[in-house]
Specification:
The complex is a heterodimer of chains A (113) and B (110). With 113 residues, chain A is an all-beta fold. Chain A has strands at 4-6, 10-13, 19-25, 31-38, 42-49, 56-57, 64-70, 73-78, 87-94, 103-104, 108-112. Chain B is built from no helices and eleven strands. In chain B, the strands form two sheets. In chain B, strands 2, 4, 5, 9, 10 and 11 form a six-stranded mixed sheet that branches. The chains are: A mainly beta (113), B mainly beta (110). At the A-B interface, β4, β5, β9 and β10 of A face β4, β5, β9 and β10 of B.
Chain lengths: 113, 110
């Protein structure tokens, strides 16, 4: 079974801090994704990566950056956390073909105070 | 941008009944996928239907796709309390990304 592991289930940070969310997958998947999930808004794609060192903006990249130095690891960075970035963050991975499903981690519930 | 929109937003049924959720989308697709999310957890992939398929089954799940109406439905037969979750449709338009709807919350009461 594919396992996607997010480093923290719950995280509390302060406004202005630089925040790192880590995600690791164990299935040698080419693609990795970061979403945020908010009540009433569903899942929105922040960034995705289709290969090491490659990244593409999703629908809501503002205020975020990402890093993919190794195939199995995809990091989401909040450069200067703000209260409107309080959310559930979900990482996912998938194989290279478009007909492959995405496999999700359990999410990180991030609170910015 | 949202593409899939699920209907209804919430559904409450008794164990043993069937649950039907619908999804509408706006642009042409390569495939459509359904996912389940238990409270506070990540999404779990249920089933994928390609644009040239009309119906697909997996256990108690039945998915239909009507590309002329840009709609899909997910039927869960003989529902159980353990089926209580949110269900999302997601569309793929040929790249690796998915566009998710806002989900249907299903409550199955014993």
């Amino acid at each position: 079974d594919v396992k996607v592991t997010q480093s923290s289930r719950y995280l509390v940070k302060r406004t202005g801090e630089k925040v790192f969310l880590e995600c690791v997958q164990d299935m040698d998947h080419e693609n990795m994704f970061w979403y945020r999930q908010d009540p009433g808004l569903g899942l929105r794609l922040i960034y995705f990566s289709y290969d090491v060192k490659m990244k593409e903006k999703g629908d809501i990249p503002e205020g975020y950056s990402v890093s993919r130095e190794k195939k199995e690891r995809f990091s989401l960075i909040l450069e200067s956390a703000s209260t409107n970035q309080t959310s559930m963050y979900l990482c996912a991975s998938s194989g290279g073909h478009s007909n492959q499903p995405q496999h999700f981690g359990d999410g990180t519930r991030l609170s910015i105070l | 941008s949202q593409q899939g929109e699920e209907d209804p937003q919430a559904l409450s049924i008794q164990e043993g009944e069937n649950a039907t959720m619908n999804c509408s989308y706006k642009t042409s697709i390569n495939n459509l996928q359904w996912y389940r999310q238990n409270s506070g957890r990540g999404l779990v992939h249920l089933i994928l239907i390609r644009s040239n398929e009309r119906e697909k089954h997996s256990g108690r799940l039945r998915v239909t796709l009507d590309t002329s109406k840009k709609s899909s439905s997910l039927l869960i037969t003989a529902s159980r309390a353990a089926d209580t979750a949110s269900y999302f449709c997601a569309t793929n338009s040929g790249y690796s990304t998915l566009t998710f709807g806002k989900g249907t919350m299903l409550l199955v009461s014993p």
